[in-house]
Amino acid sequence: MAQTNSYRQSSNGVADESPNMLVYRKMEDVIAHMQDETNGIPVRTVKSFLSKIPSVFSGKIHFFIVTVKRLEALHLGTLMAAHGYFFPISDHVLTLKDDGTFYRFQTPYFWPSNCWEPENTDYAVYLCKRTMQNKARLELADYEAESLARLQRAFARKWEFIFMQAEAQAKVDKKRDKIERKILDSQERAFWDVHRPVPGCVNTTEADIKKSSRMKQPHKTRKSVYGLQNDIQSHSPAHTPAPEVKEPTEEEIRDQIQHWQAQLDRHRLKMSKVAESLLSYTGQYVEYDPFFTSPEPSNPWISDDITVWELETSKEPGQQRVKRWGFGINEVLKDPVGREQFLKFLESEFSSENLRFWLAVQEVKKRPIREVPTRVQEIWQEFLAPGAPSAINVDSKSYDKTTQNVKDPGRYAFEDAQEHIYKLMKSDSYSRFLRSTFYQELLQAKKKVNNCTYHCSNNPSRTG
Amino acid sequence: ILNSGCNNNVKGKVKGCEPRVLSLQNILSLILFLLPASALTTGIYMIFSTKPEMATQEVQPNETLTNLKAESDTLKTKLEDERAKLHDVELHQVAEKVDGLGQFIMKTRRTLKGHGNKVLCMDWCKDKRRIVSSSQDGKVIVWDAFTTNKEHAVTMPCTWVMACAYAPSGCAVACGGLDNKCSVYPLSLDKNENLAAKKKSVAMHTNYLSACSFTNSDMQILTSSGDGTCALWDVESGQLLQSFHGHAADVLCLDLAPSETGNTFVSGGCDKKANVWDMRSGQCIQSFETHESDINSVRYYPSGDAFASGSDDATCRLYDLRADREVAIYSKESIIFGASSVDFSLSGRLLFGGYNDYTINVWDVLKGTRVSILFGHENRVSTLRLSPDGTAFCSGSWDHTLRIWA
User: Fold this and answer.
1) Model confidence at B22: pLDDT above 70
2) Where are the WD repeats (chain B) (predicted)?
3) What is the model's pLDDT at position B100?
4) B72/A365 CB distance under 8 A
5) Average pLDDT of B215-219?
């Protein structure tokens, strides 16, 4: 990795968090609000048939502090449940529903910010332990029974040890107070629902491999749920100090200084000007934006009719397309039909060498590096060499530089000349093109291809 | 004055005095003291007219590093001040005169099923209907998104194919990931031909390939990598044409400027920086550091004068190159998961953001408000791109599917 650390010091010395920790901290902030004594959700014991359900809250969504619509609140709540911050007391599937279902908060010990990576041996102990208990509510679900069978095969040699561990855990559990046990059992189950989710459910512990190496902190990762170290943590370690960062070298700082100096020398525009520019660009192009102005005759993705694509490949450009060429020289150069028309116009005036030079130089940059020296020579001969057939006028500074470059030809040999020619075209040829009858006629031309009734009625068959 | 390096409250000589950084002021007072009166005026003139680098030569060598750092920090602060001076108005304030946006009807118009694992990346073909997508299971698939038919499939030798791109000609695709390489596969019309046999290794990095893009031709590829660098390659020979150093950590994304004349691109990395590069010289010409976490995605505004970024800090931001600063933040209290990928609509009025909370948020670029939230994916949205003619955008997700929205 490039100079990697799990965390990096930011310029103000505050420890940076890995991307996952950032999200955990935000979810934990919401949990803190939810659990707030004065303004949070009421958590209570609910009486049910023969017993009491301790420490639950209902799924009515009025507790989110953030002002957000119901659908979003439900979605965010479901995500928080999927990450294991609270859970429905009678379902393995971790979602939030806006009905009378009861939920319970997860104990901070099991929060994902504690960097849990429980191993399969622990899962085996857990499932085994469950089978030792007689309560109906603790019966294994089908997928759990399958997992248990699989683990028994995988750990056949160690099974005696696992069994013993399970027995020991079951004994400890039995000693607990009944109510406390109910709560702890459910929290433990919810923990496993996060790390060994129901088949078909999202596994929220999956990490983006690009970031996972930065999130692995061996000294913090907890792998064993039923191991010997049972340090209870009542708060999240999302705020932890960062390890040492490598100091930059003198050369690096000198480069930095040069960089800052160059940045300072740059010419900047005022925000007001920039804002106006963004507004005007957007305003100008909104009629070309299919999300605002439906394409003629229709958007293929919505209507299944590809007429608009067929029209675009035809040689006859529509009015709207021609109008766009007038927005700036880049528009006419970007559109192959625009380029063609522009060239045609210039040829009619016997002044096409500038555009041809510009196009040739663009072409050189697109070729494999092997072809570059030959192409550069060809361009030189055609446009710049003394007695060139399509001689172009370049300022003497660029000409001299180009002469030098051509001796050791690279892809950017004509960069200066091209820039000069571009400016010339922009101010001269392009403006003449826009004012010309040639262009004006294209602009006024009626669309040659009218309503394509022969296409609209057919739906192309879709397979796959 | 000679004791000025020590605690000023202590009178007389102090033993074991802590060496302190000599500030410029201290240097000046030191020199004024030492110079004879006649040389005073010339002395002062010399000090004020020398470049910062020369001034540091006055200082003792073992304090050079600290002084350099101080100088670097001073310049950085000065730059921030200069940028702030031109901040006379907010974008959304100027945008008040523009009409607000109504309700949009954006729906999934196609769902592409076929990947066996998380979809990590996708790209459009210039023909506006074909796409290439890559997945964690090593598969790269070329689809006709309009008909949802799969047209080609390649299995890469590695898992986590994090980057893929369509060649401008439509005749090849590039991809790479954990193999640290970028390979190009020509697309054959013959369905029976084994594409893998024609594979060409182009780029070689020393860590995972995070993104790749053809420049305006099939002959050059731009790549970014977990090794902290970006690079430009000649496809035919595999030759490295230019490398770009400057990120302090993994580079996660890049985007080429849309200009016909420009030779620039922007990259974003785990160092929270977005850098704008000159492809010709390899120099970083502009740099922006306002995000609070990894930048997962960068995309140019259609005019090329600005770009947007999506980050793990749950915000998207707009940076303008002419103003040389961040000009808008797109965020909401209810959005706490990172943005993985962003793209603009054709006019630049809308910004589409795919997020790690499985949703797509649509933002009004000018006013800074959220216009729409799109549900549908059942796991993280990992990639999102507008089609070449702007008629739709495609999103890829860890739920193994791709969706076309319009």
Assistant:
1) no
2) 112-153, 202-243, 244-287, 288-329, 341-373, 374-406
3) 94
4) no
5) 93
CB contact under 8 A, B347 and A415: no
Spatial distance between the Cα atoms of A377 and B239, rounded to a whole number of angstroms: 22
- Dihedral sign of CA atoms A289, A290, A291, A297 in order: positive
Range of weakest confidence among A131-145, B127-141, B146-160: A131-145
- Confidence at A449, pLDDT banded by 50, 70, 90: very low
Contacts of A291 in chain B (CB under 8 A): 104, 106, 345-346, 349-350, 390
Secondary structure E strands in B177-324? 181-186, 200-204, 209-214, 220-225, 229-234, 240-245, 251-256, 264-269, 274-278, 284-288, 295-300, 306-311, 316-320
Interface of B with A in 233-272 (CB under 8 A): 234-237, 239, 241, 247-250, 252, 259-261, 270-271
Residue among B153, B159, B188, B167 nearest B235 (CA): B167
**Upper half-sphere CA count for residue B241 (Cβ side, 13 Å):** 28
Nearest CA in chain B to A70: B334
Cβ neighbours, 10 Å, residue A461: 6
Torsions phi, psi for A442 (to 5 deg): -60, -40
From chain B, pick out residues whose CB is under 8 angstroms from the CB of A359.
none
* Per-residue pLDDT at A312: 87
In angstroms, the CA B72 to CA A164 distance is 63
B398 touches chain A (CB under 8 A): yes
Strand partners for A132: none
Q: Within a 10 A sphere around the Cβ of B39, how many other Cβ atoms?
A: 12
Which residues touch B228 (CB under 8 Å, ≥6 apart)?
A1, A2, A3, B207, B245, B247, B248, B249, B250, B251, B269
Q: Tell me if residue B252 falls in helix, strand or coil.
A: strand
pLDDT bracket for residue A132 (50, 70, 90): confident
List B residues 304-333 in contact with A (Cβ-Cβ < 8 A). 305-306, 312-314, 320, 322-325, 327, 332-333
| Cis status of the peptide bond prior to A197, with omega within 30 of 0 | no
pLDDT at A235 over 80: no
Measure the CA–CA gap between B388 and A313, rounded to whole angstroms: 14
Greatest C-alpha distance within chain A:
105
Taking the C-alpha atoms of residue B156 and residue B158, their distance in angstroms, rounded to an integer, is 5
